[in-house]
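**User:** Everyone, produce a chain:

**Assistant:**
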Amino acid sequence: MNIEKQSMTTNKINSWTEFQPLKQLVIGTTYPPEFFEDVKNTKAKDCLQQIAGETLEDLDNLKKTVEEYGVKTYTATTEELGYKKSIMDYLDEDGKMGMGSGKHGQHEKGRNQLPVPPLNPRDDFVTMGNQVVMTGSAFESKPWVPLFENWFGENFDWTIVRDKKKFTRTTANHRNRLGRLGIKETDIDTLLELEEQEHTRDRMTGFCAPELTRVGKTCFCDTQQAVDIADYMEMAYPQFNYKGVFIGGHNDAVFSVLKPGVLLTTEDIGHYAESFPNWDKIYLPESNLNQVRPFLEIKRQNEGKWWMPGEEDNTEFTDFVETWLEDWVGFVEETVFDVNLIMLDETKAIVNAENKELEKKFNEHGIDMIHVPNRHRHFWDAGWHCITLDVEREGSQEDYGV
């Protein structure tokens, strides 16, 4: 597509919930198949190109589906977002790839990873009423900034990232980070205590946007990642009442507000449910991947982080992902994709895969399920909610009693 300067009068920003009638939607993207053409191992290349091609097909199918319901969409190719044309363009003379390459300056030195594609705008963006807000500074989110400035003008707020606003990690979050950096578990407590005494505990720039869930006048704010997110948001966006919850991850991986009075939630329900005392609750079981024998085969090799069905014995592909694409994948074993959906309005839900039992429950609440295949969700660890960002919905800010 050609990215042209668009009239700000047509790009209205207005979104207070996840269920009011959808009018405008941003859709993420990924590398095209030809990006991987120069991968020498054909068993790895074939899988990478299949994932890329089918993911782009599914994204285009989503785009066409929502447009049939009158939704305006925004998207771009990886090249239009500033990514390079070939995987080899990220390889420097020392054999470092992307993140670890001083030549490209994409990520911190020492990392030897291929830059993450801009598939999940929801990770670092949220619409707070009449503003699209950038909350985090992940590499894959930064390429969206000039486009968002073009598309949404003064209704785009990236102050948090632009001014490098710092947030204080919770002890749990900091402990997890130190573990990922290779600090021994036995040393973490000592290090945490020392940093606390010297006031040197690491602070992070921004936070994950799915820590926030808007339900009209109330915004649920997860308290696992940082202790002062709500403090900042209350100052910057006081039109919401912020209610703390402890989910321990992205809210949209645990619950979804389908419509006033109806909550979709995982069975391992947290205390946030107390905020919806008289609502009907549709419960989802935990991921049942551990009952799927092929997944158990790949789990022995990748600890349950990702899965491409049919390629469990493709060690060349597994080695490539584990070596170069570690930051692309999450922990799909823990993900319940049925909760990660898009509400077109209070009567229509776009879902990742067919689920007859869940569809029956939706129908009982007057909600039709629209199945738009998301074939590689088990590789990307991303459902349709993660992959999109609603920027306009009909209606105003209302009080839904939560």
